[in-house]
Write a structure and sequence with these properties.
The chain is built from 13 helices and 14 strands. The protein is an alpha/beta fold. It has two domains: 146 residues, Rossmann fold, CATH 3.40.50.2000; 184 residues, Rossmann fold. This is lipopolysaccharide heptosyltransferase II.
Length: 360
Amino acid sequence: MTSQQLIRFAPSPRRVLLVLPDRVGEVAMATPFIRGLFARFPEAQIHLLMNRPLLPLLEGSPWLNHAHFHAPRDKTPEAKSARQQLLSELKAQEFDLAVMLPDSLRSAWLCFRADAKHRLGFSRNGRGLLLTDRVAVPNKIRGGYEPMPLCDYYAVLAAALGMAHPGDELQLFLVDHADAAVVQRLAGEGVRPEQPLVVLCPGAGFGASRYWPPERFAEVADQLVRRFGAAIVIPPGPGEEALAELVRDAMHEQCFLLTEPCLSLGELKSLIADADLLLGNDTGPRQFGRAFDTPLVTVFGPTEQRWTDTSYVRESIVKVNVPCGPCHKNVCPLEEQVCMTQVTVDAVVAACEEQLRPQL
């Protein structure tokens, strides 16, 4: 099939498997599609297949009644046993339809081995023969792919299922226990309720090339404390603790570093939902801000902005256009990473002021 053709179901699917992306930000950007899929098949039993660490991301949603989790990819006997168990679980469900949001060969191979009757996904990465319903890649051009918003990319799969465009309004949910834990944590750290709450996320899972220099984040944070009396809260993800400490150590004003322990994904949702501003690089928590209508300031470097564009209006993007970008390299091969070093402190402070002032 092509992206203009519809799958014909007779009867309508009783059981549907939706394979979710592997990254935090991509799962958040998939939420319009998830919402639309449940509306498209209201009588079906819809199962989600995802990475277990991402479960708190969707906690509180009405979509988690049936969840399965990817097995480890290593070659240990335990991992092999877990993969076999997962396959048995999926086969037992006798899925009428499997929809793959990731473009990976792994997702297609798993749905093929699970004997899903219809297997829908984009025909790329050599997996076309494993799909029963192949959707043409909408943005393929000579030598690569034309950037397009991820929500629009998923909408092409939606069209093949007879769904309207799901839109790009991200939807995440809060849970009481995470909300309470964050309130208690902030009070224990000494954050005063009357202070403007600025959450600073200096990391990025993509790689070091996406980091704006920590000393510049520190300088911006100092100015926000002095001008607005802001409480600067830094909640690093796993493996980002050292980077967060660099920001703290470069600051002259007080900040609150949440590392002992780090917040869970559920707690991070609650923190960002309550924030007056989220400042950071192009990284997963940015999508939390969009879902909870939190004002955002995002520093862009080597990544293409168009992949993650939405119609969200309470975000200021700070970037410079350079001849070598966007390159999407994990590590910059140049002596100076100009796409990041040319982003000035003054430009980021001005963007933060633009987002903060209407709320104060």
